[in-house]
# Entry
Amino acid sequence: MNANPGQLPRGWTIATIEDVADINPGLDKAEYDNELDVSFVPMSSLEAETGLIDVSQCKKFGSVKKGFTVFREGDVLFAKITPCMENGKMGVVPALRNDLGFGSTEFHVIRPFTGVAAKYLYYFVSSKRFRFDAEHNMSGAVGQRRVPTPYLRSALVPLPPSGAQHRIVTKIEELFSELDKGVESLKTAQEQLKVYRQAVLKHAFEGKLTERWRTANKDKLEAPNQLLARIRSERESRYQRELAHWKFSIKDSEAKEEKTRKPAKPTNTESVRSDFARLPDLPTEWICLKIGNLNAEIFDGPFGSNLKSSDYVDKGVRVIRLENIGNLQFIEAVQVFFCKFREGDFSVVVITLSG
# Structure
């Protein structure tokens, strides 16, 4: 039995759910024809947290009269099995086909007595406080735990007068409507921020963000042809270092008796383009290059099965995994891995720019 809800307003009382509703009421099935169409509600048709119930499915009475839970319009469905109960699968049954519905055997049915508002009971049993208490009174094996009927019958509920129940429900729904509007506003704001972020990036690489600064610092700016010459010079120096290292590696590989994978010969391709038709007009102080023409080092891999569990070690080269990459951020708070590093076998995904 759950704890006393606390001091109540004048005119309210404390009752058990059994005092205010019929729990899992039966049905005289002999009164119905087997060919009668009835609504059918599997567990998947009851939406968590919102109380929405999809009653669009239809079955013949004869096919569901055994082995399913029966209910009527205005009943409160309460999912009794874990994790559906904890997730808030409860709701008030809407209008049904021929005023009769059947559904999952994992539903408790709460049918309010006259003077008790169904939505008032629904909001009470769907509250976090009630679900927390119900969770701690479940019975059964792990993974198949259920809220037992005796617990539901004896659970305490604060009961105001009938008129107050309806006013409470109205106020709850007004506040929930405002919360829903707030959520929609936040979603809209998030989408607008995404657009704004992209606009900022676009303007940054069109030179619009630094236009005033360039005007005020014309004498400090490096001419495009000077920048390009410096980049080419640094690229050539790096290429010569890589070429010398490659030649040494080839000789060392040929001198060894065992077969080893030969390193790839470095390249020094230069493909400066002047026909960047898709790019916007750039400031006169700017120049446009392919990333490959920058003084950059770009590596990728390994992927798939190239990096095996046996390559992980306690110390070594840090491995950057997909779990480390968030939305515009690097996530450090995940398990750190290191790998063995053998030149030519593994590299880290990285782009470094110098100069």
User: Anything to note?
Assistant: DSSP finds nine helices and 17 strands in the chain. The CA atoms of residues 324 and 331 lie 5 Å apart. The first helix runs from residue 17 to 20.
